[in-house]
Amino acid sequence: MYVSIIRILISLGGKCLLNWALVFLQRTHVCGSFLAAFAVSVAVVDAALTLAVTIIHHSDGSLVLLGHLLTSYHICLLLQIVGQIHRVLQWPVVAAAAVDHFCAATRRLHATTVRTKSAVCLIGTFLLWGFAAHHTFLLSDFKPVLEDVSYHHMHRCWVAPCTQVLHIALILLLALGYSALHAGRFGRLSSSPNNQPKAQTVDQIEAHCRSSFVRRVLSIFLHTWSPFLVFLAVLLLLPEEIPSHLALSVPWLCFLNSLLVALVLCAVCPVLQLSPGTAAPLPDSFCVWKF
């Protein structure tokens, strides 16, 4: 789809402001969570992209870098490259964040120091960006689309749509819904009139506890993110898709973080031993995971 350069600048500027506002909000989790560290890198890349596009656009074809005249063609080329990298990153980021949360929830890395965890998150972030760039330039069939007009008359850019955001949200929400239904079914069986308290087995008691735990997780998640879910539903119904250069953002990563935390908690709740009133050992700046 074609988008005017002015509209691109406005959307990038708004995205940058929102990115850095949320990065500041979750600054305490930057060293302890992969997604928080990756969100900082997204904010930096978006800020650099916005600055580059703004400078090139306002130079009006008079900016020379390393002997090359930078024009509107380079704005469109840069947007399409960054957009393609964002599209490539979507699923790998989900996988890396899920592994990070699973290890934290099951305390597999309980002996890891904060400095070591920060180093792992930083290395993982650089590796993912490197992988996405390598895939975009060397492995994919990515070809930039540029209008065959003079750069003086080039006032719009073609940007690829990104469907991965809605696909990821839909798949993870379906998984969370299945976990809630599955736990609720076993909870009803364990609390049926045929099961007298004296006759209840350990498995039935655990099923009832699991059902209560999963319902609490679902309640916390929906209480916080219901407006964003409505926003995603509206996007799903609209004919226009999300431009790829806007698909990977800090607000999306914050929502993804809470959704993955909810899924991991539902998956490991028999393993996760929490005292009443304590919080789950998973970083989240929006949901308060207290049970």
From TrEMBL:
CC terms in the record's Gene Ontology section: plasma membrane; receptor complex
Q: Which Gene3D superfamilies match?
A: Rhodopsin 7-helix transmembrane proteins
Q: Does the keyword Cytoplasm apply?
A: no
Residues annotated as coiled-coil are none
- Residue ranges crossing the lipid bilayer per the database entry: 6-25, 34-56, 62-82, 118-138, 158-181, 217-238, 250-272
The record's annotation in InterPro entries points to: GPR160
Q: Which PANTHER family match?
A: G-PROTEIN COUPLED RECEPTOR 160-RELATED
What is this protein called in UniProt? (Atlantic silverside) hypothetical protein
